[in-house]
Design brief:
Elements: H1 5-14, E1 19-22, E2 27-29, H2 30-44, E3 53-57, H3 62-73, E4 77-81, H4 87-97, E5 101-104, H5 109-115, E6 120-123, H6 124-127, H7 135-143, E7 150-156, E8 164-169, H8 170-183, E9 191-194, H9 202-213, E10 216-219, H10 228-237, E11 242-246, H11 247-255, E12 269-273, H12 279-288, E13 293-298, E14 308-312, E15 326-327, E16 332-336, E17 342-343, E18 350-355, H13 367-373, E19 374-376, E20 386-396, E21 402-407, E22 411-414, E23 417-420, H14 421-429, E24 434-442, E25 445-452, H15 456-463, E26 475-478, H16 492-501, E27 505-506
Parallel strand pairs: 1-10, 3-4, 3-5, 4-7, 5-6, 9-10, 9-11, 11-12, 12-13, 25-26
Antiparallel strand pairs: 1-2, 7-8, 13-14, 14-15, 16-17, 16-18, 18-20, 19-20, 20-21, 22-23, 24-25, 26-27
Helix pairs in contact: 1-2, 1-9, 2-3, 8-9, 11-12
Length: 507
């Protein structure tokens, strides 16, 4: 198999009348999804060459998933643009993609005006006016396709303050999803409850586990995550069996005592990633759903979702470290020290590195950052072996399982999102009154230090023009002068002491 559409067509042949995807308002069967996507793909093939990026300016829905697969039928790859992201960020993504066309739906006209897109706008409704399937055209595209062709792009936060577009091939997704669904026993009997935004790689597991197995995916309305009772009602009513959520989403139910209202008893597979899972919250889940399988997943977008996993069978107490576990089959995961020597001793930290087909194609239109992160394996001088250097420090515990330690640089995981503090600092320093800024992630909060005469509320107001809400610092601390190390860098150790001892003001 060299194309993910094989998943879709196989499931459509086996389960034609079964619901593949459903949102709050509509659903679509596997047979309907194939037909609709082929029709969209036939129209797109008239306008786009294979391997072209096609930005999609829509929120997640049944319509959006139909468009995704339509783009893939046309031999192209999709990049979802979150309609609620700031104009500056969306403009950068569009400029990086170097496109003069995007696709949206008529319901998003108001949001579209925000970005003042000068190129051509294609509406999904227009594509479906002439929904004639051109099987000959689609076959010619398929015959020329490779498993290394791009499937999707996801823009992550960048250490330079600039988002980077991770491009992922069909082969990477196929190899990962095959072992992912087998490892955790995901089958056609499962109902997957989607939480993750579709410009966040956790969603890839939801979408492609669904079509690979003939399962059903229920798209949970975003607003339900602010109301635990509505969220639990949805899980119960839609008979959700499997959730693959960010840790912060998992904790919403347990911290707000949702289980005291109702327990979604159909849940039997509970997987989480994106941040360190608080043991207290995990234990609440295990108390109410003791027979479910709990899995701690680890991995950045650059290695196609996850590279390690740990099925939790042990009991943990607050303060214990939950391992990130062992590598998935067909993924090589290892640790390197500062001298590029492999670290194998228990307890010794090293940078976590990954090789294998899960390693993605690099950053779109950004060769400099690609060359920095995707490098030759220093342990292999004999042939080409590309590895991705995660920037995460990890170690082996006494049982030989990998455990996450910290970031090697200043990239963090916050609210389920991977964030570069440098991007926040750059946005702060773009505000006229701020001379310099430095951000530190401590106690699960982003602390922003700044030198400048400006009210904190004004800073927040300014940052909302360039950053998504999840990147806005939680605490702002004004300094007269930054402490400096002997190397001329801001002394972050000294700033951390201020967090511990200073009376800070929250925004």
């Amino acid at each position: 198999m060299f194309n993910i559409l094989t998943y879709l067509e196989k499931s459509a042949a086996q389960y034609p009348d079964k619901i593949a995807f459903a949102d709050k308002d509509k659903s679509i069967t596997y047979e309907e999804l194939v037909k609709r996507s082929k029709g969209i793909g036939s129209q797109l093939a008239k306008q786009f060459s294979p391997r072209t990026p096609i930005p999609v300016f829509m929120e997640k829905s049944v319509d959006t998933i139909s468009l995704f697969f339509g783009i893939v039928y046309a031999g192209c790859f999709y990049v979802l643009l979150d309609t609620k992201q700031p104009k500056t960020r969306l403009d950068h993504i569009l400029n990086t993609l170097n496109v003069n066309t995007l696709i949206t739906s008529m319901g998003y006209d108001r949001d579209l005006k925000k970005i003042e897109f000068a190129g051509k706008v294609i509406y999904l409704e227009e594509l479906e006016e002439d929904n004639v399937i051109n099987e000959n055209s689609l076959m010619k595209i398929k015959e020329q396709a490779l498993d290394t062709d791009p499937l999707y792009g996801i823009f992550t936060s960048g250490s330079t303050g600039i988002p980077k577009g991770v491009i992922v091939a069909h082969r990477s997704v196929i190899d990962f999803i095959d072992v992912f669904t087998e490892t955790f026993g995901i089958t056609s009997e499962d109902v997957i409850g989607n939480q993750a935004p579709w410009d966040f790689d956790v969603s890839v597991k939801d979408i492609y586990s669904t079509i690979a197995t003939g399962a059903t995916m229920q798209i949970i309305p975003k607003q339900f995550f602010s109301f635990p009772t509505k969220l639990i009602d949805f899980l119960c009513e839609r008979e959700v069996t499997t959730i693959i959520w960010a840790v912060s989403a998992i904790c919403i139910i347990s911290t707000l005592k949702g289980f005291e209202y109702k327990v979604p008893t159909k849940l039997n597979k509970i997987m989480f990633s994106g941040e360190v899972m608080p043991v207290k919250q995990l234990n609440i889940w295990r108390e109410y759903l003791p027979d479910a399988m709990y899995v701690n997943l680890y991995g950045p977008t650059e290695i196609t979702c996850n590279c390690t996993y740990h099925i939790i069978k042990e009991d943990y107490e607050p303060g214990d470290v939950i391992p990130i576990g062992k590598p998935f089959p067909n993924e090589r995961v290892f640790l390197l020290d500062d001298e590029n020597k492999e670290v194998k001793e228990p307890g010794k930290k090293g940078e976590l590195c990954v090789s294998g087909t899960a390693v993605t194609l690099g950053y779109y239109n950004n060769s400099e950052q690609t060359q920095k992160a995707f490098t030759q394996n220093p342990l292999n001088p004999y042939y080409l072996e590309t590895i991705y250097r995660t920037g995460d420090l990890a170690y082996y515990n006494e049982n030989g399982l990998l455990c996450f330690a910290s970031r090697k640089d200043f990239q963090i995981k916050h609210m389920g999102h991977r964030i570069e503090l440098g991007e926040i600092e750059g946005s702060m320093e773009s505000i006229h009154e701020i001379k310099r800024a430095c951000c530190i992630f401590e106690n699960n909060k982003i602390h922003a230090f700044y030198d400048g005469a400006i009210d904190k509320k004004e800073i927040v107001r300014g940052l909302k023009k360039t950053l998504p809400v999840f990147m806005i610092p939680n605490v702002f601390i004004q300094v007269e002068q930054f402490p400096i190390t002997k190397n001329g860098k801001i002394d972050r150790t000294e700033l951390k002491k201020k967090i511990e001892g200073e009376d800070v003001v929250q925004a």
